[in-house]
Specification:
The chain contains no helices and eleven strands. It is mostly beta strands.
């Protein structure tokens, strides 16, 4: 069982930055893939980024095309926390951002069904 708590959301002007945090409790956190999804009003939840642990002790990062070059995902296993650094924010980035955990295969890293545990979400609002 894994519990996830997001923080760091807020209101920011276009071009600004935010850093989201996902604090996890539970066993074997470092072996989980941790993903960030977002959901804007009236839209489906969509993949943003994920970080996957491998048995070679390397973490692989994955990004949706619309955030590449702007967002960076990282993890601190000692603190059981994953971060999403969001730069150059745009109004279209406005959404509730959710942290999620699971054992996602690389080819399925962007699929909602690959994840078992979800946080409550944190609101990100980017004004123009």
């Amino acid at each position: 069982q894994v519990q996830l708590v997001e923080s760091g959301g807020g209101l920011v002007q276009a071009g600004g930055s935010l850093r989201l945090s996902c604090a996890a409790s539970g066993r074997a956190f470092s072996t989980y893939s941790i993903g960030w999804f977002r959901q804007a009003p009236g839209k489906e939840r969509e993949f943003v980024a994920a970080i996957r642990w491998s048995t070679s002790n390397i973490n692989y990062a994955y990004y949706a095309d619309f955030v590449k070059g702007r967002f960076t995902i990282s993890r601190d296993n000692a603190k059981n926390t994953v971060f999403l650094q969001m730069n150059s924010l745009k109004p279209e980035d406005t959404a509730v951002y959710y942290c999620t955990a699971g054992f996602a295969a690389p080819s399925l890293i962007s699929k909602i069904g690959s994840y078992d545990y979800w946080g409550q979400g944190t609101q990100v609002t980017v004004s123009s």
